[in-house]
Amino acid sequence: MKIVIQIAKRAPSALLVLLVLLFVVFCLQRLTPVNPARALAGDRASESALQSAYEQLGLDEPLYVQFVRSVTETLHGNLGISGVTQRPVLDDLSVYLPASLELLFAALLVAIPIGLILGVSSAQRSRGSGFLRFSLVLGSSVPIFLTALLLIIMMSQQLRVLPAAGQSSFTDGPIGPTGVLLLDALLAGRFDVFADGFSHLVLPALCLAIAPAVAIGRVLRSSLSHTMRADYIRTARMKGLSEFTVLRSHGLRNSINAPLSMAGIQIAAIIGSLVVVEDVFAWPGIGLYAVQALDRGDFTTISGVTLALGLIFVLANAVVDGLQMMADPRIAS
């Protein structure tokens, strides 16, 4: 319930963020030498077709009229026609976005447990924690496109244990109702499709998760090290509680806010890396869709993708704020 309330409170700020994003994309579209009418009509379009595209996009109107019209149409759900697919951008987003959300959620499911293990083991100076920390820091210091290529070479070409590209090897996989392949496969009882989709998901999710896991682990280590020296921790130990109980009931509970804040920041990093990872792994999501739009100079599609990613980030951070309120009720007071 607190999460829902927090999301509702974020609605005005979310609209403001999306308005700013729309304005930035609008300005970039007018500053770039790429002709959006040409991107819509095609490279070999005639002058009459090109003029028709100008009128369809409203490029013959004053700039302030174009911006107001763009905002109005966006609020009504009209994001324009994509030059990539020649379909409404909103329809394309409904097709490509579920795959990206699946990848984003999987990356968080990998990053958060690894970050927790890294932070706890480092704070407790467990055996092997130094090697784990060194390995993850080394992995996060490598550019993400190079990490993706190394994972493909090692896990797909050398060991041949995981596929290198795509979302599934099946051409007859379930379509709908959610658009998320793994969930749809479970709902349809296609466990073969689920297993295959899961194997395709591992490498891109791991590639996206390494850097956020290191960031979350570092923050948790610092916060937990400070918490475990507090007076109430010593009191809990004097009561005869086991170290695991002290860590779970008192240490983590009072150290979790800072890692949650870092997780919210890292969501932006994952979203920013989606374009690169989806392009390298040929993942059929919104990032690959954006790359195709960039190749054509299709700012109508780019604008829609930017707004969708901005909305995801705002909603994700609202959820993080709600989780922080649940972990520490003093935040809401």
Low-confidence stretches: none
Radius of gyration: 23 Å
The CATH class of one domain: Mainly Alpha
Q: Determine the CATH superfamily of one domain.
A: MetI-like
Q: How many helices?
A: 15
CATH topology of one domain: MetI-like fold
Mean pLDDT: 81
Number of strands: 0
Q: Which architecture of one domain would the CATH scheme give at its second level?
A: Orthogonal Bundle
Structural class by SSE content: mainly alpha
Helix and strand string, N-terminal first? Answer: HHHHHHHHHHHHHHH
Distance between the termini: 16 Å
Question: What fraction of residues sit in β-strands?
Answer: under 5%
* Largest sheet geometry: none
Report helical residue fraction.
over 70%
Question: Shape, please?
Answer: globular
List keywords for this structure.
single chain, MetI-like fold
Description:
This protein is mainly alpha-helical and 333 residues long. The protein has helices spanning 2-9, 11-31, 36-41, 47-57, 63-75, 89-124, 129-141, 144-158, 181-187, 191-227, 231-238, 243-251, 257-280, 286-296, 299-327. It has a domain at 89-290: MetI-like (MetI-like fold), CATH 1.10.3720. The longest helix has 37 residues, at 191-227. The chain is globular, with a radius of gyration of 23 Å. The mean pLDDT is 81.
